[in-house]
Task: inverse folding
């Protein structure tokens, strides 16, 4: 996403003051990052472009590519989010109809607890419950106390 697209999205094209309050409008973005060019989404877009020799220029370009190459997209997501485990050889049959509900990551082997306990941060939220949230540091402490 280039800076002119970001500026147009955040100021020019979203003047909704004549219709409804911006927070009530279905066309108003939920979030506009202060510096979209340094967002995780754009970093991922650049990784995908480099890995597959593409020239993706916007979130919409990434979206279009991802629905045409579901297997490659989710293979790259797995790698990008640092899942601990064995991914297997195939993600999903790219030619299968979504209505057939094909298996995803059928050869994958992961340990949920291992993935949850990889991060030890007290600043990142690990779980959200209706009544409270728990950070990674507290999860590790709880596991240590029960082990």
Result:
């Amino acid at each position: 996403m280039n800076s002119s697209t970001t500026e147009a999205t955040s100021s020019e094209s979203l003047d909704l003051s004549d219709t409804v309050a911006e927070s009530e409008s279905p066309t108003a973005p939920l979030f506009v990052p202060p510096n979209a060019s340094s967002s995780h989404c754009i970093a991922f877009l650049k990784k995908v472009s480099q890995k597959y020799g593409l020239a993706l220029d916007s979130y919409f370009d990434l979206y279009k590519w991802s629905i045409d190459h579901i297997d490659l997209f989710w293979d790259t997501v797995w790698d990008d989010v640092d899942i601990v485990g064995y991914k297997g050889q195939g993600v999903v049959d790219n030619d299968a109809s979504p209505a057939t509900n094909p298996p995803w990551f059928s050869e994958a082997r992961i340990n949920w607890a291992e993935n949850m306990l990889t991060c030890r941060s007290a600043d990142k939220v690990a779980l959200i419950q209706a009544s409270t949230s728990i950070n990674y540091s507290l999860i590790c402490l709880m596991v240590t106390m029960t082990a």
Summary: Residues 1-22 have pLDDT under 50 and may be disordered. The first strand starts at residue 85 and ends at 86. The beta strands are 85-86, 109-110, 125-128, 133-135. The chain is about 40% helix and 5% strand.
